[in-house]
Amino acid sequence: MRAGSDKTFGVFRSDFCKKVQFARSICVKVHIYRQGSITQLMKTYLSPLGFDTSHIISLIVRCGIERGDRICLIRPEFGKDARADRAIDAVREMSQKISGDISVDVLRVDNRNIETMILALLDEIRKSTPPFHPDGSLIVNLSGGPREVLVALTTATLILAPHIHQCAIFSDIERETAIYKPPRLPFSIDERALQILADVAAHNPTSISEIARRLQISESTASRVCAKLASKELVHVQQQKQSRVVTLQFSGKIMLKTGEMPPGNSGEPRPSSPMSLQR
Q1: pTM score, whole prediction
Q2: Which of 47, 74, 108, 198: disulfide with 276, CB 3.0–4.6 Å?
Q3: Under 8 Å CB-to-CB from 266, ≥6 apart: which residues?
Q4: Does one domain contain both 166 and 198?
């Protein structure tokens, strides 16, 4: 062991213990504040996590937490980080001191692919909010954690803004949490186009004639709608020999996740699971 390494470890251990002690004191404050004030909605806190828990603790103090609520911490699937593991333990310890009925999950996302991360986070947002979770209220923390995870979460938040109750940003300078409503993007498609997009997703890639046959519509209608979808870069249409092949694009996958159709309706595939969820 190099000279001075014991001192370095001692400083780190002291700093980490102070954070744990601070978290414990916060738990007492939150418990007193929320006691006897149980609401009908189940809150889910969705937050990236690095090695610093300050942004999560600040958010919980600001918004409150109670039994039945859930904390979902987002971590990269690839790359070990012992400090982050200790931070997860600290959040779990904090939640248990408030109530044993608060769940803390760790969502592992594929940090090697930004598109996969965004789609995984869209799935998490959808399953935590109506209509998939009728009593769910989601608070998204856009602070902390690895940068690539934060970018993916911010993108997913903007896409599904109508599903999200509140967003939070923790200031590293002021050491305070600001709460805001995420902006809603106006882009949408009609029911017929959404139905065809869902059919393409369920049979990707497919042909226009096959779409028409499955949905019992004319080929001219299927062709016209697919052309509109292609103009918005939701699908790609390519002539192959005697047929036109339609392939779902990344933006099309996102559009399907912004619709209100429950999984399985109109040919939409159930949300995939490109991540692991740990308890």
Answers
A1: 0.72
A2: 108
A3: 194, 195, 198, 199
A4: no
